[in-house]
Design a protein that fits this description.
It is a single chain. The protein contains nine helices and eight strands. It is of the alpha/beta class. Strand 5, helix 5 and strand 6 form a beta-alpha-beta unit. Helix 2 packs parallel to helix 3 and helix 8 runs parallel beside helix 9. The longest helix has 21 residues. It is globular and about 45 Å long. The chain starts with a strand and ends in a 13-residue tail after the last helix.
Length: 295
């Protein structure tokens, strides 16, 4: 029998300068189920779509969205179902990893992203919340972000790795270096290959419960133009699909995020097609099984 999973979309984009990623989960639903979710089977998968209400500020709205996501995931994670979260902007990661850490203790985390997302309110040049979630999860920030940051240790600092980064500011890099977070930048991926870098990252993060957070801007924008903050020279999308599919049967993989799909920028639907393939790779049965509902 295929393992049970929970599939949740969150229509939220106010943590980004361009809120268009809020439309990503709904566009995925409109496209209909990808092949791995079409035939009836005994595994339970569903696309629960959260639509957080309006709030007076981006920070207040993000707090509501993060809390709603954490609450939606909690009962599934308590039953050891794998969660697959489709965003929405990357500030939502605070809900996913707060929920999984509450269920399974401090986590390893593989953060696949063109950016480090490790700014704090003191260092951010833009003020955008989706540039700060990793710093928040690492326990380095409170103050104005206190409503978003986990009130307990969410990550095991020795088991965190960033892969694919190629656009960031020096304060972010200094923070992660100080905390001992391994950054496998895009230059290293090009020189060594994704397979070798992925294996090194897993060696670090997967020694116990862990998660994988994928910002679609990690992929080269020629293949995935429909993202919130595209950066040239990224990962090969099909290589990333194969790498993620290789984790399908790992019971320690508690959750996968697929974030920052921006339908308004998606030329020819290329990013949507990649998102569907990544979704099937992230589910614990992949192409071989299916869930019992969509929408």
């Amino acid at each position: 029998m295929a393992r049970l999973a929970a599939l949740v979309g969150v229509a939220f984009g106010l943590g980004a300068r361009d809120p268009g990623c809020a439309a990503g989960p709904e566009r995925l639903l409109e496209a209909g189920p990808p092949p791995c979710l079409r035939a009836p089977a005994s595994a339970g998968a569903w696309m629960e779509l959260l639509r957080p209400p309006r709030s007076p500020s981006a920070l207040a709205a993000a707090a509501v969205a993060v809390e709603a996501l954490e609450a939606a995931l909690a009962p599934h994670l308590a039953l050891r179902r794998r969660a697959v979260v489709v965003g929405g902007d990357h500030s939502l990661a605070l809900g996913t990893w707060r929920a999984l850490a509450r269920a399974r203790g401090p986590l390893g985390l593989l953060w696949v992203d063109a950016h480090l997302d490790a700014h704090t309110p003191r260092t951010t040049p833009s003020g955008a919340l989706h540039g700060m979630p990793l710093a928040c999860l690492l326990g380095t920030e409170g103050g104005v972000l206190e409503p978003l940051c986990p009130p307990y240790p969410a990550l095991d600092l020795e088991r965190v790795c960033v892969l694919g980064a190629r656009s960031f500011e020096p304060p972010e890099a200094r923070l992660l270096a100080r905390l001992g977070v391994r950054v496998l930048g895009m230059g290293e991926v090009v020189s060594r290959g994704l397979a070798a870098c992925w294996a090194e990252a897993l060696e670090r993060v997967a020694q116990g419960p862990y998660g994988v957070s994928v910002d679609l801007d990690a992929v080269d924008p020629d293949q995935a133009p429909g993202v919130g903050t595209p950066e040239p020279g990224g990962l090969d999308g099909e290589e990333l699909v194969r790498a993620l599919a290789g984790l399908r049967a790992d019971p320690e993989l508690g959750a996968v995020e697929l974030m920052e799909y921006h339908p308004g920028r998606d030329r020819e639907g290329r990013t949507l097609a990649l998102l569907q393939r990544l979704l099937c790779a992230a589910l614990p049965w992949g192409e071989e099984g299916t869930g019992d509902g969509w929408g």
